[in-house]
């Protein structure tokens, strides 16, 4: 399964990007946690928006390892990096960013 994962990620991202480009406004939620067995820290970035059929959508954009201290600046930088990667870093689009810790 793990050898097919990169292909699945590319295919799903290709489907998601056009949808994200069409959204006028969205919210962003992040969550950070530490794996207590490996002591690795992670951040997940999720976007919420109303689609063209007026349904509330919630989509995980990415989960990444965080090697820095969990400061506001660190969270901002990781969220921005992921939103840029998904072509969604436009101040006119982001309604709010919430960090769930």
Describe this entry's structure for a reader:
- By secondary structure, this protein is of the alpha+beta class.
- It has one domain (5-100): Signal recognition particle alu RNA binding heterodimer, srp9/1 (2-Layer Sandwich), CATH 3.30.720.
- Helix content is 31%, strand content 37%.
- It contains two helices and four strands.
- A four-stranded mixed β-sheet has the order 3-2-1-4, with helices on one face.
- The chain is globular.
- The protein starts with a helix and ends with a strand.
**CATH overall fold name:** Signal recognition particle alu RNA binding heterodimer, srp9/1
Largest beta sheet: what is the strand line-up? Answer: 3-2-1-4
Counting helices, strands and paired strands, the structural category is alpha+beta
Kindly state the percentage of residues in helix. 25-40%
Radius of gyration: 14 Å
Taking the sheet with the most strands, its summary is: 4 strands, mixed
Distance, first to last CA:
31 Å
What number of domains?
Answer: 1
> Any idea what the shape is?
globular
Helix/strand order: HEEEHE
CATH architecture: 2-Layer Sandwich
Quick gist of this model?
The protein is α+β, with helices and mostly antiparallel strands and about 100 residues long. It has two helices and four strands; from the N terminus they run αβββαβ. A hairpin with a 6-residue loop joins β1 and β2.
Layout of strands and helices, then pairs:
Blueprint: H1 5-21, E1 26-34, E2 41-50, E3 56-66, H2 72-85, E4 94-100
Parallel strand pairs: 1-4
Antiparallel strand pairs: 1-2, 2-3
């Amino acid at each position: 399964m793990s050898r097919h994962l990169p292909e699945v990620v590319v295919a799903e991202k290709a489907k998601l990007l056009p949808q994200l480009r069409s959204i006028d406004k969205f919210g962003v939620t992040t969550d950070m946690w530490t794996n207590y067995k490996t002591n690795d820290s992670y951040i997940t970035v999720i976007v919420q928006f109303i689609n063209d059929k007026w349904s509330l959508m919630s989509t995980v954009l990415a989960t990444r390892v965080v090697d820095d201290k969990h400061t506001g600046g660190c969270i901002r930088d990781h969220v921005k990096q992921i939103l840029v990667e998904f072509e969604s870093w436009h101040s006119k689009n982001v309604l709010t960013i919430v960090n769930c810790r």
